[in-house]
Design goal:
By secondary structure, the protein is α/β, with parallel strands linked by helices. It has one domain: ComB-like (putative 2-phosphosulfolactate phosphatase), CATH 3.90.1560.10. 40% of the residues lie in helices and 20% in strands. The chain is built from eleven helices and eleven strands. The strands form three sheets. It has a five-stranded parallel β-sheet with strand order 7-2-8-1-9, with helices on both faces. Strand 10 and strand 11 form a beta hairpin. The longest helix has 18 residues. The structure holds D-malate. The site of D-malate has 12 residues, from loops.
């Protein structure tokens, strides 16, 4: 198995290379954690798009009764949208059976950057072991892409990528074809996992959420293996 980590979407290989790869998209604070939460609570599917305009257009086509518009800019719910991007909002009462149209600053933009890939999975700390189990089945070429923050490195995403790498190693017992980035991510996970919630609170994204009174989201997203689900992209939708 060849394992690489892109610490930002800007480090991804070109589409012609991605076509042969499985890509795992990671945005711990908070987009992929929220996707995992929504699907675990029986949302029908998530159409993830990069812009607010596209989200509104798709929702109008589906009809607002069938779809929920969700997402944030600067971590705050977009005006006129039904839900923001807090996993705690995506309860079964709100999302079960509903189609979500989601746009977030970094997470859905990272998803838009990997559409050429052979297979796309969604990971967060909430479902990291389930994703490792699925990846371990095939001996293939895998890139873990961190959404980062506006083109820059985000420690919480790197820790999640490293945790996934370590879980793969635990299952497969080899790391011959790991890139330098995969080895570095694994070291970050070893260093920070024992105090992961405290570490998430110290990151730029964690500090921003706490300033907005959203510290409970950071605590929630720091939970390891809370769900045994593996969201994946099928027909341009994130589904279970
Ligand atoms: C993003 O996609 O940029 C994030 O999920 C931001 C957030 O915490 O809402």
């Amino acid at each position: 198995m060849r394992l690489d980590v892109a610490f930002t979407p800007g480090e991804l290989p070109p589409p012609a290379v991605l076509v042969d790869q499985t890509v795992v998209v990671i945005d711990v604070l908070r987009a992929t954690s929220t996707m995992v939460e929504a699907l675990a609570n029986d949302a029908r599917g998530i159409t993830a798009v990069a812009t607010t305009e596209e989200a509104v257009r798709i929702a109008q086509n589906i009809g607002r009764d069938g779809a929920l518009l969700t997402g944030e800019r600067k971590c705050v719910r977009i005006e006129g949208f039904d839900l923001g991007n807090s996993p705690l909002e995506f309860t079964a009462e709100r999302v079960a059976g509903r189609q979500l149209i989601m746009t977030t600053t970094n997470g859905t933009a990272a998803l838009a950057a990997v559409t050429a890939s052979r297979r796309v999975l969604i990971a967060s700390l909430l479902n990291v072991d389930a994703v490792a189990r699925e990846l371990a089945v095939d001996d293939e070429s895998i890139t873990l892409v961190c959404a980062g923050r506006e083109g820059r490195f985000a420690l919480e995403d790197a820790i999640c990528a490293g945790t996934l790498a370590l879980r793969l190693y635990r299952r497969l017992g080899r790391r011959r074809n790991w890139s330098d980035a995969a080895l570095a991510a694994a070291q970050l996970a070893r260093r920070y996992l024992p105090s992961v919630e405290r570490t998430l609170r110290r990151t730029a994204a964690g500090r921003q959420l706490m300033e907005l009174g959203l510290g409970a989201d950071v605590t929630y997203c720091a939970q390891l293996d809370h769900y045994d689900v593996v969201p994946k992209v099928r027909d341009r939708q994130v589904v279970l």
